[in-house]
From TrEMBL:
The keyword Transcription does not apply. This is Glutaryl-CoA dehydrogenase. Belongs to the acyl-CoA dehydrogenase family. It comes from the Bacteria. GO terms for molecular function: fatty-acyl-CoA binding; flavin adenine dinucleotide binding; glutaryl-CoA dehydrogenase activity. Gene3D superfamilies: Acyl-CoA dehydrogenase/oxidase, N-terminal domain (1.10.540.10), Butyryl-CoA Dehydrogenase, subunit A, domain 2 (2.40.110.10), Butyryl-CoA Dehydrogenase, subunit A, domain 3 (1.20.140.10). The keyword Transit peptide applies. Residues 249-396 form the Acyl-CoA dehydrogenase/oxidase C-terminal domain. PANTHER family: GLUTARYL-COA DEHYDROGENASE, MITOCHONDRIAL. One of its GO terms (biological process) is fatty acid beta-oxidation using acyl-CoA dehydrogenase. Keywords: FAD, Flavoprotein, Oxidoreductase, Transit peptide. Residues 32-143 form the Acyl-CoA dehydrogenase/oxidase N-terminal domain. Its cofactor is FAD.
Amino acid sequence: MTETSRKTPTHGSSQAQLPAATDLYRLDTLLSEEERMVRDTVQKFVRERVLPVIGEHFEAGTFPRELVPEMAELGLLGMHLDGYGCAGLSAVCYGLACQELEAGDSGIRSFVSVQGSLAMFPIFAFGSEAQKQRWLPAMAQGEVIGCFGLTEPDVGSDAANMRTTARRDGTSYVLNGTKMWITNGGIADIAIVWARTEDGVRGFIIERGTPGFSTSNIHRKLSLRASVTSELHFDDCHIPAENMLPEVRGMRGPLSCLNEARYGIAWGATGAARACYETSLEYAKTREQFQRPIARFQLVQQKLVGMATELVKSQLLALQLGRLKDQGQLHPVQISVAKRNNVREALKTAREARSILGANGITLEYPIIRHMNNLESVFTYEGTDDIHTLIIGQAITGESAFS
């Protein structure tokens, strides 16, 4: 090799500028103009409307319901559905919105996910035209809030063995049972509830105020405090037969809804991770110990590098997931891979970020402990980490650990 050839840089390396610390792989260049616009719009909303109030709501254990009309005005409710007053945006746009909402707080993203993916989606996918016309426009406007009832006090991951039943009685169904850990339950106007019937698991639209239907909120939570979590109770609850979702039977119905929600979680977790990383990076640059910023210390840099690397990987995973969804090529196993990885890494990032902030990391002056506590719930809901591990394990080995 000649002296000249040794000095010649790899093509393009001398021209490339140092990437931003929060976008090491220039993911921004992989997004369309519309996708960037959606991301930036939601990011601005979170910065101006969510972040100034979310710490107080988290501390008080209250949901900022006053933000619902604003989220509806932005088109965030059911934004990935077509028609009926919904924005009809791409899966990637929806994912980017979830990322920015969860950078604010998991409770805010959970509200949007439940409204759009767990309450509106089953009506859109499995409802009658009359049901779609009646409910979807009002839900897109935030005038009607929905929730999704699948999990029960004694039945979580093994949802197929639910105990809630719906018995046909002339022109109505009679529901009996309890659903638990229901986001939005205490403020919902309608509940999409899954119950066992004589011909399999069916979904029902149940309106608040129906005799025999009541809710009770779950208190003393240390996670998702800025979110309403409830139990749904059905005691000989009579609902009209036309409130049953006619186009689906069996567990395919609720599981398809969960896949929609899990998709949003895979994106949302990257927002929580990014918020923790950015906070700890800025803190490390300004916090001085031993007459220098702690960002100079090797151990702190090691933590920041690990967070930055995992953030890039999670964002790339989420983006490819969205591209596959938009192309109609998405398989549920791929959602499990992304949900499992991105939530795991977001939780690790929150813990590493908290260690950089030291004692300051446990106060609500910074968002880290709030995100860390929230992510403990995200780690569990819409399929626990263990369940997603077994889903992936079955896919790659061909052997089921569930039976």
